[in-house]
Amino acid sequence: MDILMILFTLLAGITLSAQSSVHGTFSRKAGTIETTFLTMLTGLVFLTIIIIFFGQGNVLRILSAPVWQLSAAFLGTAFLLLSVIAVPRIGVIATNVAVISGQLSISMIIDHFGWFDSLVIPLDWKRLVALLFMIIAIYFIYRGNKRSNMETNS
């Protein structure tokens, strides 16, 4: 079952990169906020259908959740909006490596302090070095993208 979850997660990463690329192109025609809106609206329609036919819980229980848990919806929307803004400017790979670096950064902090009922995993120098390498990777990817873009435009 773990292998299946790894494959699903790999597929999620593939779809995220494809989505970022399509969003970047689409946002040039429709606008950044409009592109984000369409994605959220489409998600609402699909999830409503899925809930109607396959839902197992009580949708109204959302209203009883603590406010900090509801913030996840706003964080997801912010992620999508920021990705749609970034891709046309810095490219898909630079955006995704920056996203992963941001995820790793906050994940290390969450693990270190055990926030949101997560395991407590102390921050050590190995994790910091790994994060430093990710930041260096962002720099080189961004510089490479910028150089390629300049060569293409000249």
Describe, in plain words, how this protein is organized in 3D:
The chain crosses the membrane at residues 36-55, 67-87, 93-113, 125-142. By secondary structure, the chain is mainly alpha-helical. It has one domain. It has 5 helices and no strands. It has helices at residues 2-30, 32-54, 67-90, 92-113, 125-153. Helix 1 packs across helix 2, helix 3 (67-90) runs antiparallel to helix 4 (92-113) and helix 4 (92-113) packs antiparallel against helix 5. It is globular, with a radius of gyration of 19 Å.
Topology summary:
Layout: H1 2-30, H2 32-54, H3 67-90, H4 92-113, H5 125-153
Helix pairs in contact: 1-2, 1-3, 2-3, 3-4, 4-5
GO cellular component, one term: plasma membrane
Pfam families: DMT_YdcZ
InterPro entries: YdcZ (IPR006750)
